[in-house]
Write a structure and sequence with these properties.
By secondary structure, this protein is of the alpha+beta class. It has helices at residues 2-15, 307-317, 340-347, 351-394, 410-426, 435-457, 460-492, 497-554, and strands at residues 28-34, 47-57, 74-76, 86-92, 97-107, 115-120, 140-142, 166-167, 175-179, 183-185, 192-193, 199-207, 211-219, 222-228, 230-235, 238-244, 251-258, 261-266, 269-275, 281-282, 285-287, 292-301, 324-328.
C-alpha cells in the first residue's frame, strides 16, 4: 500500500502545474531545458563550466509583464532555489526579444532535466549587478552586439583598435561584417600563452565566397583560416585541414590544442587532427584578414576543450531546436496537446489579426442566428403545408374550419389569394370563369409565389457572405500578420525559428477563424437551400393544382 501511495503521489506531482516556488513576487516564469536525451541532442559525457545563450521572445516569455528594461530578470537553477550568474547581451522589450548568457555549470548526458528558469514580473525588483559570466574560464569573448564603433571584449573590457561594421540580422543579433580588413584586439595578459600550454579558439563565420586563403582568427603563430571552401589551421610549423565551409552558410569552427594534439572542428564535429604543441603566444587577436562575410561569437579559452564541448556550443549558440527547448512554465511544453498552445497563439496575435478575428466572430454570430431562425421557419412551414394540403385535398369545395392553424403555410396564403380572385369575379355576376379569367388568376398566384420565395430566401445572402468572405478575411489577417512578424524580426535582427514560429502560428489563427465561420455556414446554407427549394416546388405544384380545380368548378361549360 505504501508503495502504491508513493507511486500515486509521484504521478500526481508530475501532472500538477509548476509553481513559482523560488519567489512568488516574480510571476513571469520561463523554463529552458537542454535536452541531452535520445529524443533531443544526445551527448555521451557531462560537460562542465558551460556558458550558453538563452533566447527570450514573445513565444516563451511574457515581456508585457516584465519591466521595460529587463532589470527584474533572474535566472534560477533546476532546483528552483539557486540563482545562476548571467549576463544580458540584449533586451528589447518593444520587439520582445532578449539574449542572456547564463553560466549553467554542468550539463548531464541522457536527460531532459538540465533546466534553468528565467523569472521576471516584479515591478519593485531592483536591478542586480550582472555577473561577468566569462571572467572565470575565458581569455576573450567578442559578441559584436554594440550598436556601432569598436567591439568590446566581454571578459576584460578591452575594445578593438578600430570600429567594426555591423550586420543587424546576424547569428545572435548583430554580427561583425567582414570586408577583408583585420579586426584587432590588443594584447593583454589573458591573451598570453606559455609554450606547451592549452588553447581553445572558437567562432561563427558566414563567408561570402571561396577564396585562395583567408584568415579567420590568428593568435601569434596559431592561425585558423579558410582555404578554398575548407577549414585549415597552422600551429607554428604544423598544418592541418578538413571540414567544408561553404559560402553563404553559418558554420561554427574551432581549434583545440593540448596534450600534444591539435584538433579542428566544424559545426561541433572533429574535422582534422595532428600532433602539435602550443607555441608561446604574446600578442593580440587578429580576426577576418582577407575574409569577406559575417563573423560572430568569437571565444578564446586557456584550456583544451573536448568534442562534447564543441558539440554543445554549436548546438546552443546555433539554436538547435532538439537541444534547447523553452516555454512559459505551465504551457504546452509541460502538457503537450493542452490548451497552452492556444494561449501562446492568442498572446502573439497582432492588433490587425484581432480586428479580423473580431469581424469574423460577428459574422459567425450572424450566420448562426440566420441558420437557427431559418431552420425553425422552414420546419414550421413544412408542417403547416402538410396540414393544409390534407384539408385541401379532402375538401369538396372551399376549405373551411379554423384557418388560423394554417397561418404559417404559404400554400394556404396562395389558396386564400386564389379564392379571393375567384370571388371577386363572381361578385360581378360572372358565375363561370373564362379562359382569360383563369389565366389572370394564375398570373396573380404566380406573383404571390415569387413574393413568398423572396420571403423564404430572405437573409440567406448573409450565409453566402460568410461562406465566401470568411476565408478571404482570415487570409487577409494571416498575410498581414506574417508581414508584421517578419518586419519585426528583420528590425530586431533575431532570425531563429523560436522567434519566428509563434508569430507565424498566431497569424495562421486568422485563417482558422475564417474557416471556422465558413464551414458551418456552408453546411447550413446547403441544407436550408435544399429545403427552401422543396417548399418552392410545392408552391408551384399547388398553383397549377388550384387553377385546375378552379377551372373544373367554375370554368365555362
Amino acid at each position: 500500500m505504501k508503495h502504491l501511495l508513493a507511486v500515486a503521489a509521484v504521478l500526481v506531482a508530475a501532472h500538477l502545474p509548476a509553481q513559482a516556488s523560488w519567489n512568488k513576487d516574480f510571476p513571469v516564469q520561463t523554463r529552458v531545458a537542454f535536452d541531452t536525451s535520445d529524443k533531443g541532442f544526445a551527448i555521451q559525457t557531462p560537460e562542465g563550466d558551460l556558458v550558453v545563450p538563452v533566447r527570450l521572445h514573445s513565444g516563451n516569455f511574457d515581456f508585457a509583464s516584465a519591466k521595460p528594461d529587463g532589470s527584474d530578470l533572474r535566472v534560477i537553477a533546476a532546483d528552483d532555489k539557486t540563482p545562476l550568474p548571467f549576463q544580458v547581451e540584449r533586451y528589447d522589450g518593444i520587439n520582445e526579444l532578449a539574449l542572456l548568457w547564463v553560466n549553467v555549470g554542468k550539463i548531464l548526458p541522457g536527460t531532459d532535466k538540465n533546466v534553468v528558469r528565467v523569472y521576471a514580473g516584479n515591478p519593485n525588483a531592483a536591478a542586480e549587478g550582472r555577473a561577468n559570466v566569462f571572467a572565470g574560464g575565458y581569455a576573450a569573448v567578442l559578441h559584436f552586439s554594440e550598436a556601432d564603433g569598436a567591439a568590446a571584449d566581454a571578459v576584460g573590457g578591452a575594445a578593438t583598435t578600430a570600429p567594426v561594421a555591423r550586420e543587424t540580422n546576424g547569428l545572435l543579433g548583430a554580427s561583425a561584417k567582414l570586408d577583408g580588413r583585420a579586426i584587432s584586439l590588443p594584447a593583454s595578459d589573458k591573451l598570453r600563452f606559455a609554450a606547451g600550454g592549452t588553447l581553445t579558439l572558437a567562432l561563427w563565420v558566414k563567408p561570402d565566397a571561396a577564396a585562395e586563403a583567408t584568415t579567420l582568427a590568428a593568435l601569434g603563430t596559431v592561425r585558423l583560416s579558410r582555404k578554398g571552401d575548407q577549414l585549415a589551421a597552422e600551429i607554428g610549423s604544423t598544418t592541418l585541414a578538413g571540414g567544408s565551409l561553404p559560402a553563404g552558410t553559418w558554420a561554427h569552427v574551432g581549434l583545440s590544442i593540448g596534450n600534444g594534439k591539435a584538433t579542428i572542428y566544424v559545426n561541433g564535429k572533429p574535422a582534422g587532427q595532428a600532433d602539435a604543441a602550443l607555441p608561446a603566444i604574446d600578442g593580440g587577436l587578429q580576426l577576418g584578414a582577407g575574409t569577406q562575410g559575417l563573423m560572430d561569437e568569437v571565444e578564446v579559452l586557456p584550456a583544451a576543450r573536448d568534442d562534447g564541448w564543441f558539440r554543445v556550443q554549436a548546438a546552443a549558440q546555433g539554436a538547435d531546436a532538439a537541444f534547447v527547448k523553452s516555454a512559459p512554465e505551465n504551457a504546452a511544453a509541460e502538457e503537450p496537446g493542452g490548451t497552452g498552445y492556444f494561449g501562446i497563439l492568442l498572446k502573439n496575435l497582432t492588433s490587425d489579426a484581432w480586428v479580423v478575428i473580431g469581424i469574423l466572430m460577428v459574422m459567425f454570430a450572424i450566420a448562426v442566428w440566420v441558420m437557427v431562425t431559418k431552420t425553425v421557419t422552414v420546419v414550421k412551414t413544412a408542417r403547416a403545408n402538410d396540414d393544409f394540403m390534407k384539408h385541401f385535398r379532402s375538401a369538396a369545395s372551399e376549405v373551411g374550419g379554423d384557418s388560423s392553424k394554417f397561418a404559417g403555410s404559404p400554400l394556404f396564403r396562395l389558396y386564400r389569394a386564389g379564392v379571393a380572385e375567384v370571388k371577386k369575379r363572381q361578385a360581378t355576376g360572372k358565375l363561370s370563369l373564362s379562359g382569360a379569367s383563369l389565366d389572370a388568376i394564375k398570373a396573380t398566384l404566380d406573383a404571390d409565389l415569387v413574393r413568398e420565395n423572396h420571403t423564404m430566401n430572405s437573409r440567406m445572402v448573409l450565409l453566402t457572405i460568410a461562406i465566401s468572405g470568411g476565408p478571404f478575411l482570415g487570409l487577409l489577417g494571416t498575410v498581414v500578420g506574417v508581414m508584421i512578424t517578419f518586419a519585426a524580426i528583420a528590425a530586431a535582427g533575431d532570425v531563429n525559428v523560436n522567434a519566428i514560429a509563434p508569430g507565424i502560428a498566431a497569424a495562421l489563427l486568422a485563417t482558422v477563424a475564417g474557416l471556422f465561420v465558413a464551414i458551418p455556414a456552408l453546411f447550413g446554407y446547403n441544407w436550408l437551400a435544399s429545403r427552401i427549394k422543396t417548399l418552392s416546388a410545392d408552391m408551384e405544384i399547388f398553383v397549377d393544382e388550384f387553377v385546375t380545380r378552379a377551372a373544373e368548378t367554375h370554368g365555362e361549360r
